[in-house]
Specification:
Rossmann fold; Elongation Factor Tu (Ef-tu), domain 3; 3 domains; 6-stranded mixed sheet; 7 helices; 23 strands; 18% helix; 34% strand; globular
């Protein structure tokens, strides 16, 4: 492997209950010297109170009182650390099936998922579910950490068996980049430093892999800029004393935007030309995803929050489309359900016209169904009340993603990925 540039890597951990995710994260932070002295002292104090002889590194990320009392991870815990080679944003996700929705949240923006498997248990249903989520969310890389390798007798054979089974599942789901590493989070074997306890393993440690992975490239597809706010200049007018231009602020989901480019406003279809671009208070000639900018157009046309600026002729607003859902609610989803759909900065009414199929995690294929239950993954047909500029998720992770929301209480019911 060649060294990667010192860029930001977003990673998320996943795995089943008691696989050791929080301990692994704590070990990673501890051994890479990313824990402050006062944080370590607090962990050591709580560990002593529990009668432990050493620091329980799982407490580094299990920050909620309920988590510490129950000994499980509930919420997504975010940590930021850096080495000489790279900066990291780490999301420690829950392993309990009840909190799979939080894993979806943590993995949605990840460049890599570190998936833990207990060497004694092997690949479980939750392992398959997390691999399916990683595949659906198009996470570029998956690292399989076969944990507690120190607790099995024939460690090498066990590791190879677990890694082979995980690779088979990953390939069946369309994941092409899965790397396996034998680790002991408790003792630090192959987490930050390579271990002499696994002489049969000649590969890199977990941190070495994370430092070398290529970061996901900027989405350089067609221009998409969801409008988040309409800005009317106050006082001195940037466009000159004789004219007053509105600005449209938002973050580029994809593509490049230059002064002079023709743009189309969706869903209205009206067209104009970029007159000026602003990055904060600085005027610029070009912006690229994922920069947040303010756009001034040549024409005074009706643009509101929730509209999208797109390259001319590259997109169309639609009212009907199919999508893959990660259903995250205790109540079932059935045909005819009326919900809210949030896409970008716009929220509209939607109705579920039909359920096509549900993913069977054992056979890794889709089967007919008339309902989706908690943590199910399935394909549905949707009809929305207003046209939306959706794109297939396989083309864009931004414009192809949406949320389904309960109109009665505002709770999130599902993460959706546009299929076609």
């Amino acid at each position: 492997m060649s060294a990667a540039p010192a860029t930001l890597l977003r990673l998320a951990t996943a795995g089943s209950v008691d696989d050791g995710k929080s301990t692994l994260v704590g070990r990673l932070l501890h051994d890479s010297k990313a824990i402050l002295a006062d944080q370590l002292e607090a962990v050591e104090r709580v560990s002593r109170d529990r009668g432990l002889t050493g620091a329980d590194l799982a407490l580094v990320t299990d920050g909620l009182r309920a988590e510490r009392e129950q000994g499980i991870t509930i919420d997504v815990a975010y940590r930021y650390f850096a080495t000489d080679r790279r900066s990291f944003v780490l999301a420690d996700c829950p392993g309990h099936v009840q909190y799979t929705r939080n894993t979806v949240t943590g993995a949605s923006t990840a460049d890599v998922v570190v998936l833990l498997v207990d060497a004694r248990k092997g690949v479980l249903e939750q392992t398959r579910r997390h691999l399916a989520v990683a595949a659906l969310l198009r996470v570029p890389h998956v690292v399989l950490a076969v944990n507690k390798i120190d607790l099995v007798d024939d460690a090498q054979s066990t590791f190879l068996t677990v890694a082979a089974e995980a690779h088979e599942v990953a390939l069946g789901l369309g994941l092409s980049d899965l790397r396996a590493i034998p680790v002991s989070a408790l003792h630090g074997d192959n987490v930050v430093d390579r271990s002499t306890s696994t002489p049969w393993y000649a590969g890199p440690s977990l941190l070495e892999v994370l430092e070398m992975l290529p970061v996901g490239e900027v989405d350089d597809g067609d221009l998409r800029l969801p409008v988040q706010v309409v800005i009317r200049p106050q006082g001195a007018v940037r466009g000159g004393a004789d004219r007053d231009f509105r600005g449209y602020g938002g973050r580029l989901d994809s593509g490049t935007l230059r002064v002079g480019d023709p743009v189309e406003v969706l869903p209205s279809g009206r067209r104009s030309t970029v007159r000026r671009l602003w990055l904060g208070d600085r005027e610029i000639a070009e912006a690229v995803a994922p920069q947040s900018v303010t756009v001034e157009l040549d024409d005074e046309i009706d643009i509101s929050r929730g509209d999208v600026l797109a390259a001319v002729g590259t997109a169309a607003a639609r009212r009907e489309f199919s999508a893959t859902l990660c259903w995250l609610a205790d109540t079932q989803l059935r045909p005819g359900s009326r919900l809210l759909l949030k896409h970008g900065t716009r929220t509209v009414n939607t109705i579920v016209r039909g359920l096509r199929s549900r993913l069977d995690l054992d056979r890794l294929d889709h089967e007919p169904t008339d309902a989706l239950s908690l943590n199910d993954i399935g394909v549905v047909d949707l009809l929305v009340s207003e046209p939306l500029p959706v794109t297939a998720y396989a083309v864009s992770r931004h414009s192809g993603a949406f949320l389904l929301i309960d109109p009665s209480d505002g709770n999130t019911l599902a993460a959706g990925l546009v299929a076609d």
